[in-house]
Structure prediction request, 282 residues.
Amino acid sequence: MNASISIDIGGSTTKAVGFTQSGDLLGTLQIRAGDPRTSAFGALGRFMHEHSLSLADLTDITLTGLGSSFFTGDLLGIPTFRALELDAIGQGGLRLAGLKEALVVSMGTGTAFVRAGESGCMHLGGSGIGGGTLSGLASRFLHQTEIPALAEMAGRGDRAMADLRIGDLLDAEIPALNSELTAANFGKIKSSATDEDMAAALFNMIYENIGVMAVFALAGDAVRDVVLTGSLACLAPARTTFDVFNRMQDIFHVNFIIPPHAAFATAIGAWGATKRGHSGKQ
Prediction:
């Protein structure tokens, strides 16, 4: 079997995707990132093992992400290409969502905002709020660093035990201010708040701020679709927060989309760049 493998070497995780010669998705893989070289070769070797591939089966490898800068030349004698991460984010998000134009938000260790369309991809900016924020604060205050475990905790919690919401400040509903909106993150921590409640509020703070920044990024733009990608997009608390945004179209006027395989959007976009001839040879 001939296959192409694309590897996104990030700050917290390394992701690999494989495609058949006909362009069908062969599989996905995610491992923790440490040393970029170790994690890239580890992801490559594990992917090949899980899918019974040999070096002779690989037609090419594409690298992207910050860690790709540690590599020059071909890997293991396989033609190796490098795709610009921001282009990979944008094109991967569009491909997964089946859209021609969108704001693609990559939620990784930090967060990147990429306006993607048929004319190309433009980096609108970034934020230091992301998975690194979640891990750091949770480690310090909840003594938990495993993000899947934190997501489970959040699912059992109630952020209303920690967040000050609009509804807490009003005697009557104001049409332009939905009572579910947050007035101040962690602005009303009750003495009875549990770690689960704090985890729910922590996830919400991160997602809510990313969502608001996405809304601001599209100010004056006719595009209303926001594609959420990265590992954080795949967690249950993400759907909880962004469902609230989507229910408030009269306030935010955007449509948040979490597509299948969202965690692997950048690796998928990098593979697409290679096939379109938009990536560079190492």
The longest helix spans residues 195-217. The radius of gyration is 20 Å.
